[in-house]
Amino acid sequence: MNFFGLVFCLFYSIQIYASTDKTNTHPDIFPDISNKDYQQLWQKYSDTKKGNEIIDPNINEAISAGEKLYSWIRLINSTRTEENKIKLTGPGTLRGIPIDQPMKYSPTIIADKLIKIKKELNAEMSEIIFSNTPVKSEINTSNEEFIKNAREISRGYDHAVRW
To answer: pLDDT tens for residues 24-39?
Structure first.
């Protein structure tokens, strides 16, 4: 009797697995991936139907802000030497994510972060990131100030694409 019970369970498990939906388009995202990897995953996902269904305006704005930021950084860096390029990450700048302090994100957290970012940005950065003003190859602030603000925008983007 145990043998037949085991065969039945095995057969039933295979049937359940075979009938599950395998069209999950959500990629696995590790907490420490680079901004470039986030962008590539987001681009791939946003090209799908599910990626185009995001309707929360705060999430969309955080994603747009991050994409514009990365375009701006690429343009700035295209005119600089390797030693002077804007880099948001590097040795000693990555924050670990301890297992007992996981990242938390939701539409409300993303919206709150977006409000905070907008309040803290200088006028030039805010105008370029959150309006139709085109990016330019220079900045009117110190590299340190730009990087500090850019990291906050980048974190908002990271939370939004994860959501």
So the answer is: 555 566 656 666 666 6
- ∠ Cα 67 86 94 (to 5°): 85
Q: Is 157 exposed, middle or buried (0-12, 13-18, 19+ CB in 10 A)?
A: buried
64-89 burial, b if ≥16 CB within 10 A, otherwise e?
ebbbbbbebbeebeeeeeeeeeeebe
Give the C-alpha separation, 121 to 28, whole Å.
32
* CB-facing half-sphere around the CA of 84: CA atoms within 13 A: 9
Helix, strand and coil percent figures for the chain, each rounded to 5: 60, 0, 40
Q: Which of 94, 75, 155, 86 is nearest to 120 (CA)?
A: 155
Say which amino acid occupies 162: R
Helical (H) or strand (E) element with 110: helix 107-120
Q: Write out the two tokens for 83.
A: 């030693």
105-135 confidence digits (pLDDT tens): 789 999 999 999 999 999 989 999 999 999 9
Q: What span, in angstroms and rounded, lies between the C-alpha atoms of 40 and 20? A: 28
CA distances from 55 to 23, 41, 47, 60, 152 (A): 21, 19, 15, 7, 23
